[in-house]
Amino acid sequence: MRRPAPDERPVALTVAGSDSGGGAGIQADLKTMDAHGVFGTSAITAATAQNTTGVQGTHVLPVEQIDAQIDAVVEDFDVGAIKTGMLATAPVIDLVAEQVAASDAPAVVDPVMVASSGDRLLDADAEDAYEDLIARSRLVTPNADEAEVLTGRPLETVADARAAGEALVELGADAALVKGGHLDADAREDAVVDLLVTEESAERFEHPRIDTDATHGSGCTLSSAVAARLARGESLRDAVAEGVSFMERAVRYHYDVGEGPGAVNHGVARSERADRAATAEAIEEVLDRLVDSGAHALAEEGGLQIVGATPYAERPSEVAGVEGGVGGTRRGLRANRGVRFGVADDEATVLLGVREIDPATRFAATVRSPRAVAAVDDLDWERAIYRAPDGSAARSASDAVETAVDDADGTPTALLEERTRSVTVLAERSSELAERTLALADELDRTD
């Protein structure tokens, strides 16, 4: 008989409606909580017939049944946070406010009123009932339209969002996160600003707008991510910051499912972590091929670096490289140390800049040699030229790469950096990167 090895983890409770399409509601909440290492429990308020195109029907459960579900959870589990979503009617909202008041767990209130498809999910006469629940919340997370209803204030700008957030805090909420997907972000169409408002301050969380309508379940997922992190004991500010970052990635790498725009990817962060081992192994295979070939010309001047991004990489820490780079010896190439993540920030920044235009590009090899620039010309590869500002921040270097690739006719085979005269070979697959880098090495040997 084997010994058990139990997995102890925090518990969170979601009180929300069910989405038969799987992208929002209870389904999104539980997937998101699990992705954050939290055991999700639930109390279903309503069964909806919906998918990525819209809501076809709604059936609200009896208040007594909802109450029984919540009681069953709190009597058995040590609930670390409560998240509320679709509550549908005033009696349900009143019930949930009572249950939140009776609990020591922080509550994240997502005042769901309308689905992303535009279908209404809250009775019009139930809007005023939210006041008591908001007063008992640790955080309330309305989008601009919901904040308008709750506060009676028009919202068009970030300044309007701050005023609405302050009004919600005056109602009794510890904090309000006014989501900016529908706001004019200071006249910048390419930016989204979410505003966290407390009694003491207002903090902006800004990120580029993603050009997609696949936002089904985004509100549920963000509020669930914050609740999960609160259940883990994180501060409100950290929980919101990580929740917003999680949501940005979940929207960019959304699920292409259904006949509608699609649904957010609740498991994207976990998928990124799961792909790290395979990505590191792919870099090692490229390195082994180059070392076995004796291609010392690749590192004859400034050295060689090989990097690979996981399929969902968004940060340099999610890009693997050879620690210390690859140097040249009389016999060929030699890796200074092993393959690790977060050890090649400059090369990772270049690769991430390319991935802003072509997310399928995952691998790159940078050769720091003016001779390599001439070799690329002889190979007749498609190329793009950029100039990284001297001493610039990573964001500026990434922007320069992004602009160069966006201006090119398709993703180039090689990037040429004007200031350092280096070459970065690009590829979607590691085997493709190895072949291209070996071709560059052969050309360097031929012209030596």
Strand content: 15-25%
CATH class of the largest domain: Alpha Beta
Pick out the low-confidence regions. none
Strand order of the largest sheet: 14-11-10-15-18-17-16
CATH superfamily of the largest domain: Ribokinase
Averaged pLDDT, please? Answer: 91
- Please give the CATH architecture of the largest domain: 3-Layer(aba) Sandwich
Q: Distance between termini?
A: 67 Å
How many β-strand stretches? 18
Integer tally of domains: 2
The radius of gyration computed from the alpha-carbon positions, rounded to a whole number of angstroms, is: 26 Å
Largest pleated sheet: 7 strands, mixed
Describe the structure concisely.
With 448 residues, the protein is an alpha/beta fold.
Features:
single chain, 448 residues, alpha/beta, UDP-N-acetylmuramoyl-L-alanine:D-glutamate ligase, L-fuculose-1-phosphate Aldolase, six-stranded mixed β-sheet, 39% helix
Describe this structure in words.
The chain has 14 helices and 18 strands. The strands form 4 sheets. Strands 14-11-10-15-18-17-16 form a 7-stranded mixed beta sheet, sandwiched between helices. It has a 6-stranded mixed beta sheet with strand order 3-2-1-4-5-6, with helices on both faces. Strands 7-8-9 form a 3-stranded antiparallel beta sheet. The longest helix has 18 residues. The chain has 2 domains: 261 residues, UDP-N-acetylmuramoyl-L-alanine:D-glutamate ligase (3-Layer(aba) Sandwich); 172 residues, Class II aldolase/adducin N-terminal domain (L-fuculose-1-phosphate Aldolase, 3-Layer(aba) Sandwich). The protein is elongated. Helix 1 links the parallel strand 1 and strand 2. The chain starts with 10 loop residues before the first strand and ends with a helix. It is an alpha/beta fold. The mean pLDDT is 91. Helix 2 runs parallel beside helix 3, helix 11 packs parallel to helix 13 and helix 12 crosses helix 14. GO terms for molecular function: ATP binding; hydroxymethylpyrimidine kinase activity; phosphomethylpyrimidine kinase activity. One of its GO terms (cellular component) is cytosol. Keywords: ATP-binding, Kinase, Nucleotide-binding, Transferase. InterPro entries: Aldolase_II/adducin_N_sf (IPR036409), HMP/HMP-P_kinase_dom (IPR004399), PM/HMP-P_kinase-1 (IPR013749), Ribokinase-like (IPR029056), ThiN (IPR019293). This is Hydroxymethylpyrimidine/phosphomethylpyrimidine kinase.
